[in-house]
Design goal:
By secondary structure, the protein is mostly helical. The protein has one domain. It has 14 helices and no strands. The longest helix has 45 residues, at 152-196.
Length: 360
């Protein structure tokens, strides 16, 4: 490829950033869309062409995607990295953060080794548009089956989290009500004392009471952080074997059309994780894998990217922003909603792409 327009780079960057987190396969879309559009797009953006810089470009976009995800999870990664460092220092694994750090490392090893050894073979054999369409269809089936045949442990985990949060919310409301009643009583006594001249008694604070219920974007973000910590503690209670099995599912995502986050979530639910915890583990796992894949391909951008550095920068900026917005949406989405809409999308888009590519 000797040419890439800004439009092509921005569209590819947006697709990469958004679909990397959505369980619909970013690589599958980046292989399929140029072929479906045709013309110069098919010529410029051919992932399976010999020495194709397009692959280096989209994988290089992974660096921007990983940065976008890390911005959202930066507090979590600080905790996890500190946990890893203190675990090395103390030669022990005691805290939830230490356990989670080692779980993420262990879960990343299988796909890391497979990608380094067989990346070229996967690209040459499966980087064709028609094969990407077929695997996108397969991805839809995996997502649908993952929801349709969820284990009882996974469903129970969802129910347990919902019950705990309902109890916590009830307790918070009761505390807020008690605090309001205390404040109202204090005000009535103050008014009465001013009329009689007798000093009012100093009210006794209600244990755990709050003067006001926090609200607004900052309060919402604080809730997100607290729920993330709660999720990490639940994840840290799982065995290292679970982490290895769930992480190994990422190998399937080396096939264009199979979603890394999708198959990781399905594997997590199969191992008994709640949908929310499965999604969080998938998103945390994605960061080191995406970042490492991008770094490994940055050298190829230097070799093949002459003349297209402007479009590369534009695509990277869009990719990072798209990843950040996507993870913000999906973290909330998977607390109450399912993989089924994404399964339907993949099946319809995959089947439609197969028919179009075969008939055109």
């Amino acid at each position: 490829m000797s040419h890439m327009t800004y439009l092509e780079a921005i569209v590819v960057g947006l697709i990469q950033g958004v679909t990397e987190l959505f369980p619909v396969s970013s690589l599958g879309h980046n292989v399929l869309i140029p072929a479906l559009v045709g013309g110069s797009w098919a010529a410029d953006l051919n992932v399976s062409a010999p020495e194709s810089p397009y692959l280096a470009f989209i994988v290089g976009l992974h660096v921007a995607t990983a940065i976008g995800i890390m911005i959202y999870f930066w507090r979590d990664w600080v905790r996890i990295i500190v946990g890893f460092v203190t675990s090395i220092r103390d030669r022990d694994v005691k805290t939830a953060d230490q356990k989670l750090a080692w779980m993420l490392i262990l879960a990343t090893i299988p796909v890391g080794l497979t990608g380094v050894i067989f990346e070229h073979e996967f690209r040459v054999l499966f980087g064709k548009p028609i094969r990407a369409a077929i695997f996108l269809l397969v991805n839809g089936v995996i997502l649908y089956a993952g929801e349709r045949y969820r284990t009882k442990r996974s469903r129970q985990a969802d129910a347990d989290i919902a019950r705990e949060r309902a109890a916590a919310e009830l307790e918070r409301k009761q505390a807020a009500t008690a605090e309001r009643e205390r404040a109202a009583t204090a005000e009535r006594e103050r008014v009465a004392s001013s009329a009689t001249g007798v000093p009012a008694a100093i009210p006794t604070p209600v244990p755990g009471g709050v003067a006001a219920v926090p609200s607004g974007p900052q309060a919402a973000r604080r809730v997100e952080i607290e729920r993330g910590i709660e999720s990490d503690r639940r994840l840290a209670k799982r065995d290292f074997a679970d982490a290895l099995i769930i992480g190994s599912a990422q190998i399937l995502a080396l096939l264009a059309g199979i979603s890394r986050d999708g198959v990781t979530m399905v594997a997590g639910m199969f191992r008994g994780l709640s949908r929310e915890d499965a999604a969080r583990f998938a998103f945390l796992l994605a960061t080191p894998v995406i970042f490492a894949a991008g770094v490994l391909k940055l050298g190829d951008l230097g070799t093949y990217g002459h003349g297209i550095y402007g479009p590369i920068v534009a695509g990277s900026i869009v990719s990072g922003i798209g990843a950040y917005l996507s993870v913000r949406f999906l973290v909330k989405y998977f607390r109450t909603r399912t993989l089924t809409p994404f399964a339907i999308y993949c099946i319809v888009f995959g089947l439609g792409s197969i028919l179009y590519l075969q008939l055109k």
